[in-house]
Amino acid sequence: MTPLHISSHFDSGAIEVVSLRDPRDIQLKIRPDNASDFAQWFHFCLHGAQGVPVTLRFLNAGASAFPKGWEGYRVVASTDRQHWFRIDARFDSRQMVVDVTPESDSLYLAYFEPYSYERHLDLVAATGTHAGVTLQRLGSTLDGRDMTLLRLTDAHSPTPEENKKKIWLIARQHPGESMAEWFAEGFLARLTDRADPVARVLLAQCVFYVVPNMNPDGAVRGNLRTNAAGVNLNREWAAPSLETSPEVFLVCQAMQQTGVDLFLDAHGDEGLPYNFVAGTEGNPGYTPRLQALENTFKASWQATCPDFQTTRGYGATPAGTANQALATNWVGQNFDCLAFTIEMPFKDNADLPDARVGWNGERSQKLGASVLLPILAVVGQLR
After folding, report:
1. Contact at 8 Å (CB) between 329 and 323?
2. Is residue 343 among the annotated active site residues?
3. What is the Cα–Cα distance from 136 to 255, expressed in whole angstroms?
């Protein structure tokens, strides 16, 4: 038998190997982010176990950032890195245990279907080839990667540029929430489809600004929550800096130049098996106008997309208590605009489950495409 081996020295790879002596007792630890103690993301490859029953024990699952995330969770796996499926897992409040007999000599396992940096670069480049799309390099991350802003509109529409609504979508502030970039890919694919009437109408009336990956350093490093400096970007919006959170600083700077009429921030939630949004009801500047816009947006999305629901989520934030360091709250307050955090599950959508793949990249893409309809429902009321 080929000796067992576990590798993770690749894009978004992350795991600590404790013991590989016994295939029925492979002991692992979930590795924390490179400069913080957040630990939940893993991505590695098991070699040499084709046809061999193995037991993988994640020894510190109960001490991870979100231990309730393992309740009802099923591990994501692939033999070709293209097609991902789910494997059952057990969690006893301390360890997560996975039993599997690999059908291939190499079995990749991950917390969620990865979205590679190469795919990110391909997405940006391919989107930039479409008419009406321009690419703007905002600056660099701490590791020297590009922060790229995609701008999309119909330059030939009769609506003057200054009268077009400014729609912003950012994704993956938390790098381990890779479903967020799958969401952005689906959003961009529909928006650049010249045969799609919803996209055509929106591009005629709006300018879209999209940052598909807010945290490329954290993504490549295999972090769950933070950038290269160990900073949680979604706690930086009140006072970002070029020294520790240039990703947020540069995007805030661009927003100040363009203005914002609608803001969407795509994320993933470790515990809740649903798709939902969180709004700005806790902001001091929250008004009946914004509440009406929120209600219209949510009602439209729920009516047109069975994967979206409004009954389960984080609950309402009391008035005047919203944390202004979070992107949605800061943008909504400073631009007096409709703003939502979009949350997708790491597990599955319990309202519409898929036993084979759970919630995955493809379903995230389709949800990203579907959000154009609620945008269309509110676009005429944004100002």
Report:
1. yes
2. yes
3. 13
Q: Coil, strand, or helix at residue 206?
A: strand
Residue holding tokens 């579907």?
370
The pLDDT confidence band at residue 1, using thresholds 50, 70 and 90, is low
The pLDDT tens digits for 157-179 are 999 999 999 999 999 999 999 99
Q: Are 237 and 173 in contact (CB under 8 A)?
A: no
Distances (CA, A) of 273 to 73, 78, 264: 9, 22, 20
Residue 355 DSSP code: T
If we measure between CA atoms, which residue out of 76, 77, 75 comes closest to residue 107?
77
Q: Within 13 Å and on the Cβ side, how many CA atoms surround 169?
A: 27
Token pair, residue 239, equals: 């006072």
The pLDDT of residue 317: 97
Length of the chain: 383
Assigned token pair, 184: 């952005």
Nearest partner of 69 among 46, 99, 89, 44, judged by Cα: 89
Contact yes or no for 382/261 (Cβ under 8 A): yes
Q: What is the pTM of this model?
A: 0.98
C-alpha neighbours within 13 Å on the C-beta side of residue 265: 26
Annotated catalytic residue within 162, 243, 343, 362: 343
